[in-house]
Design a protein that fits this description.
The chain is an alpha/beta fold. It has three domains: 247 residues, TIM Barrel (Alpha-Beta Barrel), CATH 3.20.20; 170 residues, Rossmann fold, CATH 3.40.50.2000; 150 residues, Glycogen Phosphorylase B (Rossmann fold). It contains 23 helices and 24 strands. The strands form four sheets. Strands 1, 2, 3, 4, 5, 6, 7, 8 and 11 form a nine-stranded mixed sheet that branches.
Length: 656
């Protein structure tokens, strides 16, 4: 049952049967839309010219209460008292013609500093039945807007036709969501940011504030959850993306403990209280808690051009030529965009880089590919890709080119006369001399590079500190991959056989580790090949292990952090995954046999990384033990991200 059909059938079906049917449908929807709910990565895309939140806050926490019934109406004062105690503010949306509305309550809501809005008209599903009906009913809605002295509207059941809503005398609305397949009209706005809705003929603009956290009725009544994990997990993701966490709850379904037991469609208000306390303690001083009207005023002011700089800022060009660059650059891109810098992104088709960019909703232009492990072909391929990048550079006209070791970008920049910043964390890599400036972790000595000291910058920590603290675990991965309960779980990254630094000793260590773990029998190995050819080689070499699912090679690209988080230990032949595991606090063993870099030596000295140097080390150093997995990674300051972005901004402003 979707849309208006739901309201036609609803009176004919007993309430208990309605709930049972919605629960059955919800189970189907959860499986069908698991890739976009509760988190749709695309929704984190920053709006063009996004200026960030007021006073430098990282995200906004907006609280809303739709009051659907008389029971909810009579509980508003209880909820206001709780929020006053917690020190937060919210906006209440009242239905004008479904139940008797107390004028005293309306005055009290405003007098106590809360927001007030109109929630449809009768909450009967008929308001959006047709444009003609809506236009007629809009006259009544506007009368209530005037009488209640408000410019806010919330649509019942999130029915929405944003173009029609210009008939309403409103400044703001919550009638959509970022992603919610459980709603009667499930087409979402696909954004966690408020946005302006323009109507040129009427010269009218209102601001739409999509709700971005699952509604309480869905969470506790339909899905029958007993905790707030879905709220806190998505809140962490929204906070990391700098978006708007808008939670729409209903006093109608909150049990305040006033006699008796919670009803079948109620949940303890303490769960709401727990969420607010979690937000306040976890993100102290990091968020803005405005009323809907204040968000609308901020966005409308921005639309008028008052809050935005009139000076066009220079463009930054970022090239992603390998899969680890996607999670690393995503927060950097977002932070540059928050500061008003346009970013143009190119990508090389190599080692699931494109699939990861799609997974992380990073927009890009695909140019060029990987040319295999033959050194002569690789050099020619790099030269060819550099020429392929030239038309993009001529069109984008960037003031600064940035990459993490993309030689093709550095060559193209040289040809075009574009200043470039090369970021690196492995001092034995080749091509540093091509960039105008270089940036490396502080643990790498600057005097080892063939560049003048004034052209070398450093950043604190390791590059993985840029994005690992923003990671949100998703346990659904274990079910999707069919990981047996009780088994030890390890993620294994084979050596980079096509890399110039590859040492065949790493292949021996990989083979020894696989056979050693296979012999134990109760270890599931998630193997992440770098190329399709490597995947075929592993399946051909270990057919019995693949058939018995002791070796699992995922069929699609997954978030490597998520795979490692739920593993007991990690074995990797590459630097990035080793350092990611170390940053997560997961035991990690390196089978990399090239020249050991300063970062890995630093992590090894700290006991966060174990170097396996010969086959005998597999038996003596590798510990197959169960790991106690926390709810989420430890939060850290953004000093690494701030340092890198600060240097990029400094250099781009330095360019001519």
């Amino acid at each position: 049952m979707t849309g208006h059909l739901f309201y036609f059938v609803k009176p004919l079906v007993p309430r208990a049967s309605q709930i049972a049917l919605r629960r059955l449908r919800a189970q189907h929807q959860m499986k069908k839309y698991s890739d976009i709910w509760p988190i749709d990565q695309r929704a984190a895309t920053l709006p063009p010219g996004w200026p960030g939140w007021p006073d430098g806050k990282k995200f906004a926490l907006v609280l809303q209460h739709d009051v659907d019934t008389l029971q909810g109406h009579d509980r508003v004062r209880h909820l206001m008292a709780i929020e006053e105690e917690l020190g937060v503010r919210s906006t209440f949306f009242i239905v004008p013609k479904r139940y008797p509305v107390s004028k005293e309550l309306l005055k009290e809501i405003s007098a106590r500093g809360f927001g007030l809005g109109v929630h449809g008209l009768k909450h009967d599903g008929k308001l959006f039945r047709s444009h003609n009906i809506f236009q007629k009913k809009a006259t009544e809605v506007n009368a209530y807007l005037r009488a209640w002295n408000t410019r806010g509207f919330s649509s019942p059941s999130m029915h929405h036709q944003l173009d029609w809503m210009h008939h309403l005398h409103i400044d703001y609305s919550t009638s959509t969501f970022d992603t919610d397949p459980f709603e009667p009209q499930p087409d979402g706005a696909c954004t966690i940011f408020p946005f302006a809705v323009h109507h040129v003929p009427k010269q009218h603009v209102f601001v739409e504030l999509p709700y971005t956290l699952v509604q309480d009725f869905t969470l506790f009544v339909i899905l029958k959850k007993k905790d707030i994990e879905l709220w806190t997990r998505k809140l962490a993701w929204i906070a990391g993306a700098g978006g708007m966490a808008l939670l729409n709850t209903h006093p109608d379904y909150m049990y305040f403990g006033h006699g008796g037991k919670p009803g079948r469609e109620e949940y303890p208000v303490d769960l709401y209280r727990e969420f607010i306390l979690h937000a306040k303690s976890t993100y102290e001083n990091e968020y803005w808690n405005p009323l809907h009207s204040e968000v609308a005023e901020y966005i409308r002011t921005r639309e008028k051009g008052i809050a935005m700089t009139t000076r066009k800022k220079k463009t930054v060009w970022i090239d992603l030529d390998n899969s680890p660059h996607v999670p690393f650059f995503k927060p950097i891109i977002q932070e540059l965009q928050k500061r008003g810098y346009p970013v143009t992104i190119t990508i090389r088709d190599c080692s699931q880089t494109q699939q990861l960019a799609d997974l992380h909703a990073v927009p890009y232009t695909k140019i060029g590919k990987h040319y295999g492990k033959n050194k002569i072909v690789k050099v020619l391929g790099t030269l060819f890709r550099a020429t392929q990048l030239l038309p993009h550079a001529m069109k984008a006209k960037p003031a600064l080119a940035v990459s993490h070791g993309s030689r093709a970008l550095l060559l193209a920049s040289k040809i075009m006369g574009i200043p470039s910043l090369g970021i690196g964390d492995y001092e034995h890599a080749q091509g540093f001399f091509l960039s105008e400036w270089l940036m490396v972790p502080e643990v790498i000595p600057r005097n080892i590079f063939p560049l003048p000291p004034e052209r070398i910058f450093t950043y604190p920590g390791i590059k993985e500190d840029v994005y690992v603290p923003r990671f949100i675990p998703d346990p659904a991965i274990l079910t999707e991959l069919g990981i047996p309960k009780g088994h030890f779980l390890t993620v294994i990254r084979p050596p980079a056989v096509a890399a110039h630094y590859h040492n065949p000793e790493a292949d021996v260590l990989f083979d020894t580790a696989v056979k050693y773990l296979a012999h134990k029998g109760n270890v599931t190995m998630i193997v992440l090949p770098r190329y399709a050819s490597q995947s075929h080689e592993i399946m051909s070499k270990y057919p019995a292990l693949v058939a018995s699912r002791q070796i699992i090679i995922p069929k699609r690209a997954h978030d490597g952090l998520n795979l490692m988080w739920f593993s007991d230990f990690v074995i990797s032949g590459g630097g990035t995954m080793n350092r990611e595991a170390a940053a997560l606090g997961v035991p990690v063993y390196s089978i990399f046999r090239g020249k050991i870099g300063a970062v890995d030596r630093f992590l090894s000295k700290e006991g966060r990384l174990v170097l396996l140097e010969k086959p005998e080390d597999i038996k003596t150093k590798l510990k197959v033990v169960k790991r106690t997995i926390p709810a989420s990674p430890a939060r850290a300051e953004d000093k690494t991200l701030d340092s890198i972005v600060g240097t990029i901004v400094k250099l781009i402003e330095k360019t001519g």
